[in-house]
Amino acid sequence: KSSVDIDQMTTNLKDNHIVQISIRLEANDKKAKEELTKRDFQVKDMMIDELSEMTSKDLQGEKGKVKFKTDLKNRLNKVMQDGEVVNVYITSYVIQ
Q1: Among candidates 19, 23, 88, which has minimal Cα distance to 60?
Q2: β-pairing, 85-95 with 18-27?
Q3: What's the start-to-end Cα distance of the chain, in Å?
Q4: CA-to-CA distance for 25 and 23, rounded, in angstroms?
Q5: Residue whose C-alpha is closest to residue 3's, from 28, 34, 26, 23
Q6: pLDDT band at 85, cuts 50/70/90?
Q7: pTM for the predicted model, two decimal places
Q8: How far apart (Å, rounded) are the C-alpha atoms in residues 90 and 50?
Q9: What's the angle, vertex CA 75, arms to CA 17 and CA 54, rounded to 5?
């Protein structure tokens, strides 16, 4: 399987806390990986959208993290043309 790392980004959460987060997207094949690499800016935009609807409390719990990863995966798969995202992993995150 192929994966793409999305570099650490910083954005505001719904409750005015700030999150620094980086993720890894696992794609089902090489073509999907190439597409995700090109869609890097869209991935970040979607992450900001998702995170701006979450509070720091949402993200601190497992349930919130799972929801974030699932929602992001589903949004990405709606725009993907070559293959799909099979997993989203949070590789680091800090809430301030």
Answers
A1: 19
A2: antiparallel
A3: 34
A4: 7
A5: 26
A6: very high
A7: 0.94
A8: 14
A9: 20
Q: What is the DSSP string of the chain?
A: -EEEEEEEEEEE-TTS-EEEEEEEEEESSHHHHHHHHHTHHHHHHHHHHHHHT--HHHHHSHHHHHHHHHHHHHHHHHH-SSS-EEEEEEEEEEE-
**pLDDT, position 63:** 95
What's the CA gap between 49 and 76, in Å, rounded?
Answer: 12
pLDDT band at 12 (very low <50, low <70, confident <90, very high): very high
b or e along 15-51 (b: 16 or more beta carbons within 10 Å of the residue's beta carbon)?
eeeebebebebbbbeeebbebbeebeeebeebbeebb
pLDDT digits over 22-51, tens only? 999 999 999 999 999 999 999 999 999 999
Rg (CA), the chain: 13
